[in-house]
Amino acid sequence: MRRQTFLLTIVTLVWLTAACLPDPQRLQSAALLDQLVSARATLSTQAAPVEAACTTVGDVQTRLNGEPGLVDVRPAWRALHAAAEALQAVCGQSTLLSQPPTGSLALKQARERWQQGIQREIGVACDHLRAASIALDRSQPC
Questions:
Q1: How far apart are CA 10 and CA 36, in angstroms?
Q2: Residue 49: predicted pLDDT
Q3: How many whole angstroms separate alpha carbon 76 and alpha carbon 118?
Q4: pLDDT given at position 25
Q5: Which pLDDT score is estimated for 61?
Q6: DSSP-H helix ranges across the chain
Q7: What burial class does residue 60 get, using C-beta atoms within 10 Å of its C-beta: 0-12 exposed, 13-18 middle, 19+ buried?
Q8: What whole-number distance in Å separates Cα of residue 75 and Cα of residue 64?
Q9: To which H or E segment does residue 23 belong?
Q10: Each residue of 78-131: pLDDT tens digit?
Q11: CA–CA separation, 132 vs 14, rounded Å?
Q12: Is the pLDDT of residue 3 over 70?
């Protein structure tokens, strides 16, 4: 009887300990959120070089799409995915803006649209990052 009680106590302790461990996919999603928040901050300052931030955004997208279990962290995954897509659009438009102007009217107008697109996508990314932070019980990122 004493041995059964001891074994039951051990099994109960193991079960309680395992139940209290944090969800690894949720922790990884929170880390990806932090990376996207940092990339967004870098991309929102036009003076900063964007290559490193864009590489981070691409890495996060790869992890969101390729690592098993992350898609199950709902609704955070959808929000993180949408934020990464918006930031990837910022990267593309920033790359276009980094090209030297030629003086043509069409290119001048396109550059203005790209600049407006960057501002719009930064805002869209912020909205999605807020949704992800709420889903992951984190503080508001922007």
A1: 42
A2: 75
A3: 23
A4: 84
A5: 95
A6: 2-20, 24-44, 51-66, 76-97, 105-135
A7: buried
A8: 13
A9: none
A10: 999 999 999 999 999 999 998 888 889 999 999 999 999 999 999 999 999 999
A11: 32
A12: no
**How big is the CA angle at 58 (ends 57 and 63), to the nearest 5 degrees?**
100
Per residue in 42-71, pLDDT (tens digit) is: 999 866 678 999 999 999 999 999 887 777
Per-residue confidence band for 8, with pLDDT thresholds at 50, 70 and 90: low
How many angstroms separate the CA atoms of 95 and 88, rounded?
11
Taking the C-alpha atoms of residue 67 and residue 32, their distance in angstroms, rounded to an integer, is 12
Q: Take residue 1 and report the two structure tokens written for it.
A: 């009887």
Kindly state the tokens that stand for 48.
Answer: 């900063």
Residue 131 CB partners (closer than 8 Å, separation 6+): 75, 79
Provide the sign of the torsion angle of the four alpha carbons 11, 14, 20, 25, taken in this order: negative
- One-letter amino acid for residue 40 of the chain: R
Token pair for 52: 């490193």
Tokens of 21: 């461990």
- Number of Cβ within a 10 Å radius of residue 74: 9
**Which amino acid appears at position 113 of this protein?**
R
